[in-house]
């Protein structure tokens, strides 16, 4: 079936975007975040990006055309976009309302149609120190690219404070939250979306202190999940998981942290009697 999808294109000039029929469509010019501009190896000089909605047919493609705007019209689109710094940011469309305070803390998400609210006591990046090990035995295996073994059960926040930039356009709203010079996230809500998009940028991770760091993005809610959560099994069926428990053997809590982390290809959620918070992966 036909689907719609919002596209972001980095640009160095202002363009009129035309759909496959040649009609001009709404394309909003928004700034490229500072964290994206600082990515090592980035070769683009674009400081702005165009955001526009595309319509894709089933098992097909659509072609959209870019036409450079006349010089005198270069600022017309930018006037439609409001950018504020370090102030409260409310993202809202017909379906969802996302409330972020002036310090960049995600406070709550409201489903406006069902009148369901999920508050967050905290949301952000944390890090576990990596177990150094010496690989002389399984119990001394070092944490690395293919094994997650934190040295402590208590993660540290990546920063004590954060800054926020709020961007609001006609069809697109986002909060760019900067934790430090190597960790940031962008929380976005599109005009007709029934979900919130979170895009994170991490790195290069500092290791000048000779401590490896395992970075996580954590959501703390008041959902009473009874220690249960649900993950896909290699992108297929969904399995119920219970913290510190395995259904087919007596579980020994040797790895209290990594023993409760599961690789997911598509989705994970927690729920209680009337609410559910689901995280969908954007890239596999």
SSE map:
Layout: E1 3-11, E2 15-18, E3 24-25, E4 27-31, H1 34-37, E5 48-56, E6 65-68, E7 82-85, E8 89-92, E9 96-100, E10 106-111, E11 116-129, E12 156-157, E13 163-168, E14 172-178, E15 183-190, E16 197-202, E17 213-221, E18 228-232, E19 238-242, E20 267-271, E21 276-280
Antiparallel strand pairs: 1-5, 2-3, 2-6, 4-5, 7-13, 8-9, 9-10, 10-11, 11-12, 11-17, 13-14, 14-15, 15-16, 18-19, 18-20, 20-21
Please characterize this protein's 3D structure.
- This protein is mainly beta.
- The protein has three domains: 1-80, Golgi alpha-mannosidase II (Immunoglobulin-like, Sandwich), CATH 2.60.40; 81-217, Beta-galactosidase, Chain A, domain 5 (Distorted Sandwich), CATH 2.70.98.30; 223-284, no CATH class.
- Helices cover 1% and strands 44% of the residues.
- The protein contains one helix and 21 strands.
- It has one helix at residues 34-37; strands spanning 3-11, 15-18, 24-25, 27-31, 48-56, 65-68, 82-85, 89-92, 96-100, 106-111, 116-129, 156-157, 163-168, 172-178, 183-190, 197-202, 213-221, 228-232, 238-242, 267-271, 276-280.
- Strands 8, 9, 10, 11, 12 and 17 form a six-stranded antiparallel β-sheet that branches. It has a five-stranded antiparallel β-sheet with strand order 7-13-14-15-16, with no helix packed on it. Strands 19-18-20-21 form a four-stranded antiparallel β-sheet, with no helix packed on it.
- Strand 14 (172-178) and strand 15 form a beta hairpin.
- The chain is globular, with a radius of gyration of 22 Å.
- One of its GO terms (molecular function) is carbohydrate binding.
